[in-house]
Amino acid sequence: MVKNTIFIHGCGCCGINQTVQATAILGNIGGGFSNIKNCYVDTTLKNIGHYPDEIGDNYFLINDSSFSGDVIDGSGGERKTNHKPISDSVLAYLDLKGFTKKDSTTFHVVMFSAGGGSGSVIGPLLAKALVKRGIPTVMVVTGDDTTGNLSMNTMSTLSSIQSISKAIAKPLAMHYVSNTDNSAKTISEQIERTDAKISVFMAGLSLFMSGENFSLDNNDLCTLLDFTSITSIALRTGAYNLNIYPVTVDNSEHDYFIGRTLTNKDVSPDTGVDLLHWKFGTITNDNVLTVIGEKDLPLHLVLGSGEIVKEIDTLKKKVTALKKRVEEIKPDEIYIDEDSTESEDGLVF
Q1: Which of 68-82, 132-146, 184-198 has the highest mean pLDDT?
Q2: If 0-12 CB within 10 Å is exposed, 13-18 middle and 19+ buried, where does residue 313 land?
Q3: For residue 5, how many C-alpha atoms fall within 13 Å in the half-sphere facing its CB?
Q4: In which region does residue 263 sit, left (phi positive, over 0), alpha (psi from -120 to 50) or beta (all else)?
Q5: Closest listed residue to residue 79, CA positions, set 110, 48, 125
Q6: Please, what sign has the CA dihedral across residues 149, 49, 36, 64?
Q7: Which residues have a Cβ under 8 Å from the Cβ of 192 and sit 6 or more positions away?
Q8: How many CA atoms lie within 13 A of 191 on its CB side?
Q9: Contact 235/173 with Cβ under 8 angstroms?
Q10: Residue 127 near residue 91, CB atoms below 8 Å
Q11: In this structure, which of 48, 81, 127, 288 has its CB flanked by the most CB atoms within 10 Å?
Q12: Can you tell me the distance from the alpha carbon of 183 to that of 326, in angstroms, rounded to the nearest whole number?
């Protein structure tokens, strides 16, 4: 068996952070998983510079004048800021990396935040270009509704992915994780939990896409990501959520179009992977995947249609409610009471 490769494109601040972590974890899991390669893409060196040892010179800077004309800076959370240079640079980046057509042993993952500025533009445009070239691609997307701007950006990014899918008449597969965790006590803890969820998903995806499974060949996986090529199911929502579940999870509430299952009998005995000892969904504090279990847990790689639509609707309601609250605010009544005075230069005492 030939081992496959997953190539991760870490886009923007969030995508860079998560790609560094996922690469460290996936590189130490052991046999039976895909080879991992990556590259980091951003509009500024600020985020890339946090990881001199992990990244080195393995990055593509969109503000390189040889690709986009003028030198630019980060997007500062505003998606429109660098749209034009990013759009102009995506194909140049893929050509530079040699990703001009499908390689039967390589799958691509585009990792980015939907709530930020640069990554939320780089990611969808990069995924679009890859899929248009016939290259099997999965987006790993982090949404955020902790502020009004982040909610609006996330909603717009998910809507953009839907729009792109319909424009190119191809389904776009993504694994979507919300950065909101009401049980987290701090923002750092919230981010850590989100990153851990993504690393667990990536470990499962690496297992499915390794090419070392008896009953799961590469065409099975390619047709899962592009199900319209083998089924008569209409392209309804455009953006589809890709998840991996153990068989014990109740999937009845999800609207799944197509899926693949992996059990112990499918796994090559040479790889060292044993699903009997796969406790799916936990990572230890030192970023090592936990593999302790008591029974066989067949894993299901499934593509669903309903979750992204529901997420956009939820975000739309939050943004609408926030706008209404802002419109109702009367600054003179709220911030300046009857006992306060305002100086000529605008200070309130």
Answers
A1: 132-146
A2: exposed
A3: 12
A4: beta
A5: 125
A6: positive
A7: none
A8: 10
A9: no
A10: no
A11: 127
A12: 27
Structure-block tokens of residue 195: 């990153």
What per-residue confidence (pLDDT) applies to 316?
Answer: 77
Type of residue found at 25 = I
Instruction: Confirm if 261 and 20 have CB atoms less than 8 A apart.
Output: no
CA atoms of 22 and 2, how far apart (whole Å): 22
141 in Cβ contact with 174 (< 8 Å): yes
Residues in the chain: 349
Pairing between strand 239-246 and 172-178? parallel
Cβ-contact 120, 12 below 8 angstroms: yes
For the chain, the domains span 5-241
pLDDT tens-place string over residues 150-192:
888 888 888 888 889 888 988 899 999 988 766 777 878 888 8
**Is the separation of the CB atoms in 165 and 235 below 8 Å?**
yes
Q: Which fold has domain 5-241?
A: Rossmann fold (3.40.50)
CA dihedral 108, 136, 241, 85 (to 10 degrees): 60
Mean pLDDT of 333-349: 59
Question: 225-275 pLDDT, tens per residue?
Answer: 887 776 666 566 667 888 877 655 555 444 544 667 776 666 665 655 555
Structural Rg of the chain based on CA atoms: 22
Listed in sequence order, the residues at least 6 apart from 345 whose beta carbon sits closer than 8 Å to its beta carbon are none
